[in-house]
Design goal:
The chain is mainly α and 286 residues long. It contains twelve helices and no strands.
Amino acid sequence: MLKPWLLAARPKTLSASVVPVLIGTALAPRPILWSMFAFALIGALCIQIATNFVNDALDFRKGADTVERLGPTRVTQAGLISADQVLRAAYVFFTIAALCGIPLILRGGWPLLAIGLTSVAAAYIYTGGPYPLAYNGLGELFVMIFFGFVAVGGSYYVQALTISAEVLLGGFIAGSLATVLLVINNLRDVESDRKTNKRTLAVRLGEKFSRYEIALFAFAPFLAQFFVAELRRTDRMLIPLIAMLVAFRLIHRVFASSGRELNRCLALAGLLQWLFGILFVVATAL
């Protein structure tokens, strides 16, 4: 019975919540407050898992997930778990995230409270509510803000109690890498989304646009990293550029793939995100 829940959590995508916390914490001044890091990491993971659960249940209810789906199995569509059960589990993970937020708020005050409340609200309205972001071409904006600037900025702020220019760059880097994952998903599902009136940017602007969008957000982090290195005044911060080899491979595959073949591109995008994040941490630790 555990396997369907693991499928619903989408473990291969969880780099989107882990990497921003790594980047934000790595940029923070020493010594690192490891308890704050742990609460931030667990909270971020719980919010993403809850978001995935809500997306799984509500996409099924809205008819966006059907038997024609090309991506990984969605548990409600496959009949493995009911939509009501998945939504209840989402509320459990939202609650755990809120509990993790208490020590963060005690440390960082009202900015962390604002981050927590808006993150939970946005996680739900991504798929739910009267104007779901994912259905109205706002998925990229959501990801850039909450898996980029908010996640990196919040992770840094709870350590340093301030924000800096390099943290904004780190937020852009993390948001760009997470956006790549989203756009590949939307490109793969463009035909089924078009049929169910899920108006992603891929549906609105076309597949060619989405491929160039992926290329833009796959390479943008490397340009931003040059500015991070300049602000830090050390060439060690150029170490993440090693991950550019994966970015080149990813872009080549995206332009050569369609439909179900894009699932392999998702795996490469996940690898790119993990590799960049780990190399970023290594660069700050040296």
